[in-house]
Amino acid sequence: MKRILIPAVLAGLVLAQAAGAAERRTLVIASGEVTGYYFPVAGALCRVINKDHPLGLGCAVMPSSGSAANVAALKAGDADLALVQSRAAQMAAIGAEGFKDAGPMADLRAIMALHGEVAVVVARPGAGIDNLGDLKGKRVNLGKPGSFQRSMAETVIDASGLSQGDLSVLVELDLAEQAAELCQGNIDAAVFTGIHPMPEVQMAVEECGASLVQIRSKSMDSFFKKVPWVARFAIKGGTYDGQKEDVAAIGLKTLLVTSKLSADEVAAIAKTIWANFAAFTRLHPALRGLSKAETSRDGIPIRMHDGVEKAPAER
Question: Cα angle at 108 between 102 and 110, to 5 degrees?
C-alpha cells in the first residue's frame, strides 16, 4: 500500500509545482531602439512589475524599431504590452495613415501615459517674439519635410492659430543646425521637440541668450478638441539657464498600451506602478517630473482599458 501511496503523493507535488509554474507568466513589452528612450522606460516598467509580480506576472523588454513595430507585435501576439506614441496610437486604432493597410485596431487600449516628447518655441534675442502671435511675419525654422521635428513644428503653428503662410520665411533646417542659425541671426525662431532639457536648446540659451516662448493662444482649447493626441506640458522653471518661470508647451505622450490583457491583469499592473510610482519615476531621467495625474489626463486619444478603472485607489 505504501509503495502505491508514495508515488501518488510525489506525482501530486509535481503537478502542484507545474501548476504554480503555469500560473507565473512573463509579459513581453515592446519598446524601441536600445539607444532611444522607449527601451529604458520599458525597462523601468519591467523592474517595477518584476519587483512585486502582481498576479504572478513577470515582465521582459523586447527592443523594436518603434511605435509601428510595437503595434504590429501586439497584433501578432508577440507582445502583451507596448509603448506607442499618442499620435501613432490614434492612427492605429482607426486604421489611418501608415496603419491603413493593417486596418483599424479596435481593441487597442491605453493603460497610462508616460513621458512626453515636448515641443518648445525658442526665439533669438531682439526678435520681438514674446508670444505665439508674434511669429507672424518672422523667419521660423520648421525642420526638414517629412521629419518628426517638422510635423511637431507644424502642430505648434496650427495650435497658435496661424498658418505657414503667415510666416515671412519658412526655413527647413535640421535640428542640429537650429541653435547656430538662431544665434547668428539667420532665423528669428525655431521649434525644438524632444525630452527636456535638450542640449540643442541649451546651446541656443547659452550662446546667445535665446529664450523660450509660451505656447498659448485663444484657439488652444478648440485645437485640443480637434487634435486629441496632443497634450499640454510645462517646461519647469530652472530647466534651462535663466528660465525662472514655467513655460507652457505642447507635445505627444508615450502611451503604455495593450490589446489582449484582461481587466484583472491590467488592474494589477496599474496598481503596482502607482504603488511604486516615486521609485519608478526615478529610474530614468525621461520619467522625472511625471505626476500620477498626467498618466490619465489629456493627450490620450484612444480608449482607456477597463482594468484601469478597477485600480483607482492607488492614484
Answer: 145
- Report if residue 160 sits inside a domain: yes
Q: Confirm if 198 and 251 have CB atoms less than 8 A apart.
A: no
Q: 151 with 231, same domain? A: yes
Residue 68 shares a structural domain with residue 163: no
Total number of domains constituting the chain:
2
Question: CA dihedral defined by 264, 267, 269, 271, rounded to 10 degrees?
Answer: -140
Which residues, including other chains, have CB under 8 Å from residue 106's CB and lie 6 or more apart? 93
Beta strands in 9-165, from DSSP E residues, in sequence order: 25-30, 57-62, 81-85, 109-123, 139-141
- Among 272, 1, 240, which Cα is nearest to 120's? 240
Cα–Cα dist 7/194, whole Å: 63
Q: What type of residue is 312?
A: P
If asked whether residues 224 and 110 sit together in one domain, one would say no
* pLDDT of 8 higher than 60: no
Say if pTM beats, i.e. exceeds, 0.85. Answer: yes
CB 178 within 8 A of CB 192: yes
For the stretch 42-63, pLDDT in tens is 999 999 999 999 999 999 999 9
From 113, 115, 110, select the one nearest 309 (Cα to Cα): 110
Range of the domain at 244: 117-252
pLDDT tens-digit readout, 211-233: 999 999 888 889 999 999 999 99
The secondary structure of the chain in percent helix, strand, coil, rounded to multiples of 5, reads 45, 20, 35
- H-helix or E-strand spanning residue 257: strand 247-258
Last residue of some domain: 212, 232, 252? 252
Q: Per the structure block, which three cell numbers stand in for 188?
A: 528669428
